[in-house]
Amino acid sequence: MTNIDRTAAVAAFRPSIHTSAVLHQLLLQGDRLRGARVLDIGCGSGVLLEAAAERGAQSVFGVDVEAAAIDETQRLLSAFGKGVAVETAVGHLYGPVAGRRFDLVLANLPQFPMRAASVDGRLPSWSDGGDDGRRLLGPMVAGLGQHLAAGGCAIVAHNAFTGLEETRRLAAAQGLVPEIVDTVMIPLAPEKLAWMTPAVLDREAGRTIHRFGGHVFAELVVLLIQAPGGRERGI
Questions:
Q1: Who wins on pLDDT, 230 or 33?
Q2: How far apart are CA 190 and CA 150, in angstroms?
Q3: pLDDT class for 228, splitting at 50, 70, 90?
Q4: Residue range 202-208: average pLDDT?
Q5: Which among 95, 39, 90 has a CA at the least distance from the CA of 65?
Q6: Closest alpha carbon to 45 in 81, 24, 20
Q7: Count of structural domains within the chain
Q8: Across residues 124-146, what is the average pLDDT?
Q9: CA 37 to CA 53: how far, in whole Å?
Q10: Residue by residue, what is the 3-state secondary structure of 59-123?
Q11: HSE-up of residue 3 (Cα within 13 Å, Cβ side)
Q12: Entry pTM
């Protein structure tokens, strides 16, 4: 990868507010990260896996549809050497980890209600959640029960306007317990708002999407989704 390519990759996969929200909850897991097997679906730059590795995870696995994201993740995690088992794969959701279970699953997936388009220097895949924002979010939650170890949990960034009740239903149907552990109000840039599915914007205006002073804000929640068989919270 040339310096120009690296510069573009760093910009394209730079952490977002969603990343920070997941990171905050990850760090709150504290000593419970020690010895954990961690999966990050849509790993981007790999920064969440780096944090998990630094806090004592036994193994980390990053999956992303973008090869450049996997390159960035491998570069970031190469510093850990043999102290942490590192795996990465270019692939879709759980495809590369079929039949495997993890103590902690991290997910900050494209979930904006829009079709693929390049916005704010990001790759077209960055925000592409399909018309309702659930193109990836729905299948990810639906597959959690098959990939969480007993007592494991998932930390999921979830726009409140992309079907939070449906996510709760999917989790409960698998015997999982979802809990909102954080709520953040985030700004929606005009250039991104212009791509938003009109029906979603109309439905959520005044509910999870708010206008103040000529600006638009939306609610972002972080879900902790717990599997049975372990402690009530955490891994």
A1: 33
A2: 43
A3: very high
A4: 95
A5: 90
A6: 20
A7: 1
A8: 88
A9: 10
A10: EEEEEECCHHHHHHHHHHHHHHHHHCEEEEEECCCCHHHCCCCEEEEEECCCCECECCCCCCCCC
A11: 0
A12: 0.90
Bridging pattern class, strands 85-90 and 177-187: unpaired
Could you give the count of Cα atoms lying within 13 Å of 87 in the half-sphere of its Cβ? 16
**Rg for the chain, CA atoms, rounded:** 17
Any idea what the CATH number is for the domain that residue 212 is in? 3.40.50.150
Q: Let me know if residue 79 belongs to a domain.
A: yes
* pLDDT given at position 160: 97
CB atoms within 10 A of CB 48: 25
The answer to whether residue 89 is domain-embedded is yes
Quote the domain boundaries for residue 57. 3-226
Which residues lie closer than 8 Å to 194 by C-beta, 6 or more apart? Answer: none
**151 and 231 Cβ atoms separated by less than 8 Å:** yes
Q: Is residue 231 part of a domain?
A: no
* 212's tokens: 């103040």
Residue range 35-84, pLDDT digits in tens = 999 999 999 999 999 999 999 999 999 999 999 999 999 999 998 777 89
Give, in degrees to the nearest 5, the angle at Cα 56 between 100 and 184.
85
User: Does residue 158 form part of some domain?
Assistant: yes
pLDDT in tens, 181-193: 999 999 998 888 8
